[in-house]
Each structure stands twice: as C-alpha cells, then as structure tokens.
Design goal:
alpha+beta, single chain, 8 strands
Length: 166
C-alpha cells in the first residue's frame, strides 16, 4: 500500500476474524500515544471518545463521526500500558489493540490488531475501514485532523476493492 501504512492482513478462525496492520510513523511515541489513547486525540482520526477511562477495566464509548448517527459502541479497556499498549474491546468492533514501539528517536512502529466475529464481507469492510482510518491518523499526526463533514465512501470503496482482489 504505502511505506507508512502497510497492507492489512487477515486470517479467519471459525467465525473470528483477525486483522493486522503495521504502521511506520515519523512521530515520537508520545505523539502517537496521544492520538490513539486519549479522548483529545481520537476524534482527529477515528471517533469521539464520549466516555474514556484510561486504565485497565475502564469504560470506553466511541461515537463515529462520519455521519452514522447510530454508530456508538461501548466496552472496556482490556489492556493498558501507557506509551506501549492501549486495547479497547467494544461491541461490534471487538478487540482493538494498539501496540507502540519506538523506532529511533522520533519515529514509532504501531502494530494494530482487531479481532471480531463476522463473515468474510465484514472482514473486507473492516480491512478497508481501518486502512482509511489509518490514513486519517497519518494526517492527524501531521496536524491535519479529519474534517468529518468531508467524509464520503469513495476512498473506502476503493480500498475495499483492493482488499477483495487480494
């Protein structure tokens, strides 16, 4: 895909889908952590954190900002190690794990895993969706947070076709 956002990979075990991405971000860990693990950072690329208790077992409620009024999903923080691991397990989206590693003085490798129950069509939807959100993350880290009023399905459709062809 790109040097920053690698092609997402997946495997299926029964009805459980496992998605994986590796991103090489030219930003220090503390900046990436702020984007993926704080209520201030999440809306710039993923969703509004209406509830966010930054601790193991803490509650989390994410509200997607792309025009879907009913896209509110709640759960708990299932792993928490500041500047290293943030993991949220939420209804519909399952387990979403962000693992950060320093890659030099001012870069970060972000390994992302998403596990959820669903069919192959949902797997492709999520591969495309996460990829697009990671494009938004790259922009947000460059001080260009997503203007959700401009969001549309065109790029998602393109990514989904790419993942379906692989």
């Amino acid at each position: 895909m790109t040097e920053t956002i690698g092609q997402g990979t997946s495997r299926t075990e029964g009805t459980t889908q496992h998605l994986h991405y590796e991103l090489r971000l030219p930003h220090p860990v503390e900046n990436v952590w702020a984007a993926v693990a704080t209520p201030e950072g999440l809306p710039g690329w993923l969703a509004a954190a209406d509830v966010f208790e930054p601790r193991l077992g803490g509650a989390v409620t994410l509200r997607w900002l792309n025009g879907e009024a009913d896209a509110v999903h709640s759960g708990h923080i299932t792993a928490w190690d500041p500047d290293v691991v943030a993991e949220y397990t939420i209804d519909l989206h399952g387990r979403c794990r962000f693992h950060l590693e320093p890659a030099g003085a001012s870069a970060t490798t972000l390994r992302f895993t998403n596990e959820f129950d669903g069919d192959d069509a949902l797997r492709l939807d999520c591969l495309a969706g996460w990829h697009q959100h990671f494009e938004f993350l790259v922009d947000a880290l460059a001080d260009r947070p997503k203007d959700w009023s401009t969001w549309h399905l065109d790029r998602w459709r393109q990514l989904r076709e790419t993942y379906a062809a692989d």
